[in-house]
Specification:
The protein has 205 residues and is mostly helical. It has 2 domains: 98 residues, Rna Polymerase Sigma Factor, Chain: A (Orthogonal Bundle); 99 residues, Arc Repressor Mutant, subunit A (Orthogonal Bundle), CATH 1.10.10.10. It is 64% helix and 2% strand. The protein has a two-stranded antiparallel sheet. A hairpin with a 2-residue loop joins strand 1 and strand 2.
């Protein structure tokens, strides 16, 4: 199911881009740069690599813009390109292991919320410990599960939007979300944390 079409602002910018207006493309790039980089960083877990992939995304967008279908939401089209390039990179670099010494930077509350029952030093220390375990769990998810978690809990996409973005059936999206949560819960159990202590994106796992 396709949600909204092309926004008026993006329609104007894309029309100008297709006429060779470099300033319009720079405006379009600046509008979506943070979102693209954020997805890349969550997927590849390395700032330099994320920057390289984000740059590659916009190079591909520029070269493929004349084939973009305006009936399809532009952010969804952009997310699909970003997701595919991230997954391609992870598959090429599958032998690499992500270290917890290199956590993803940024605001974790964009897609992860740890359950909280009050403030204070003890609670803050506990939350940091749980966040570290969660980062570890996410880094160990297979790429086709991780991208769905990122799109769902960072980008706040609906299941239907994820289905459109990744070009996979809605049932597959739901199944992978469920499986990803189970894998995260299992990782927490192995670390001695009860599943009831954890929420992801406001949804208990």
């Amino acid at each position: 199911m396709r949600v909204s079409g092309l926004s008026d602002e993006d329609r104007i910018l894309i029309a100008r881009c297709l006429k060779g207006d470099e300033k319009a493309f720079e405006t379009l790039l600046n509008k979506y740069r943070a979102s693209v980089f954020s997805i890349c960083l969550r997927m590849v877990r390395n700032r330099t690599t994320a920057e390289d992939i984000a740059q590659e995304v916009f190079i591909k967008v520029f070269s493929a813009l004349n084939r973009y279908d305006p009936a399809y939401p532009f952010p969804g089209w952009l997310n699909r390109i970003t997701s595919n390039l991230c997954i391609d990179h992870l598959r090429r670099e599958k032998e690499r292991f992500v270290s917890l010494d290199q956590p993803a930077a940024g605001n974790d509350d964009l897609f992860v919320q740890l359950a909280s029952d009050g403030a204070g030093p003890d609670r803050e220390a506990e939350s940091k410990e749980m966040m570290a375990i969660l980062e570890e769990a996410l880094s160990r998810l297979p790429e086709h599960y991780r991208i769905i978690v990122v799109l769902r809990h960072q980008e706040q996409l609906s299941y239907e939007e994820i289905s459109d973005t990744l070009g996979i059936p809605l049932g597959t999206v739901k199944a992978r979300i469920h499986r990803a949560r189970n894998m995260i819960v299992e990782h927490f159990r192995k670390r001695g944390v009860l599943p009831g202590d954890l929420e992801i994106g406001g949804e208990c796992v």
